[in-house]
Amino acid sequence: MLVRRSFLVAGLAGSFCAPALAQRIRSLKDPLRLAVDHALVDSGLARALQQAFGRDTGVAVQLTAGAALPLLDALERGEFDAALTNAPEAELKLDAQGLVHDRHAIATGSLVLVGPAPKKKVPDPAGIAGGKDVAEALVRLRDAALAAPGAITFLSANDGSGLHAAEQALWRAAKVAPAAPWYAAATTTAQLIEQARAQPAYALVERGVWAVRGGAPLAVLVDDDPRLAMPVHVMRSFRVNHPAAKMFIGWIAGPKGRRVVASQRGYRVPMA
């Protein structure tokens, strides 16, 4: 079931010229329905793009946040006009079948492996701090968890989000099949960092969300492995044709959208 959190462009009337304000009033009756992986909302990226597009065009965008994989299924069924997601394998399957149109890379995020922060000369429980090879770190984490039962926990999003799909790919790269009791699921992805901080536990999290919600007693332990990259794409549905969909794709993939992306912590603009 989709987790639905909807947001309409608001508080923008003072910045519109008369034609843009008129367009906004009309578009509120039929907003562009945009499916967004919840990490892109939690990090602030999606709202920043929504608001800037609204200021420029007067077009209202309604965000529905949820896990990327079920959102993409809903996009294919025509339940959304467009999507902003971070699950490239699933996106490519739809694109190859002609089930989405105008797919463009608009941002590059990344994951970081976080866990209990080392203290002075005392390393983190799994001894992985400072690593640059995420697959090696996951193997060491598994081995340390098996050697000291109950001392180490890894929390997974486990919800079909872009984060969850990327995490599973990294376990496969490490040739590790994570399993209970040391491998557990967070209640929701929105609570992943908070639950990991409370335990404290290890977790893979999006850098943009970590920038907003991260902190002690956790720290970034493994970073800068190219396999941690998380590309973000925009695309529109082939089943429905909202009058503003092509405009939105062009704006978000163009210079104005790229400037918004460049201003957000945890993201960079992909090379043109």
What does this 3D model show about the protein?
With 272 residues, the protein is α/β, with parallel strands linked by helices. The protein folds into 2 domains: 134 residues, 3-Layer(aba) Sandwich (D-Maltodextrin-Binding Protein, domain 2), CATH 3.40.190; 119 residues, D-Maltodextrin-Binding Protein, domain 2, CATH 3.40.190. 38% of the residues lie in helices and 22% in strands. Strands 1, 2, 3, 4, 5, 6, 7, 8, 9 and 10 form a 10-stranded mixed beta sheet that branches. β6, α7 and β7 form a beta-alpha-beta unit. α3 packs antiparallel against α11. The two termini are 36 Å apart. The N terminus is likely disordered.
Task: Present the secondary structure layout.
Layout: E1 6-7, H1 18-27, E2 32-37, H2 38-42, H3 45-57, E3 61-66, H4 68-76, E4 82-85, H5 88-96, E5 100-116, H6 134-147, E6 154-156, H7 162-173, E7 183-185, H8 192-198, E8 202-206, H9 207-213, E9 218-222, E10 229-237, H10 245-253, H11 255-262
Parallel strand pairs: 2-3, 2-4, 6-7, 6-8
Antiparallel strand pairs: 1-3, 4-10, 5-8, 5-9, 5-10
Helix pairs in contact: 3-11
Main pleated-sheet profile: 10 strands, mixed
Radius of gyration: 20 Å
Can you count the helices? 11
Estimate what percentage of residues fall within beta strands.
15-25%
Q: Note the overall shape.
A: elongated
User: Which fold does the CATH topology of the largest domain refer to?
Assistant: D-Maltodextrin-Binding Protein, domain 2
Order of helices and strands: EHEHHEHEHEHEHEHEHEEHH
CATH class of the largest domain: Alpha Beta
The CATH architecture assignment of the largest domain turns out to be 3-Layer(aba) Sandwich
Helix fraction, binned, reads 25-40%
Broad structural category: alpha/beta
Number of strands: 10
Number of domains: 2
Low-pLDDT regions: 1-18
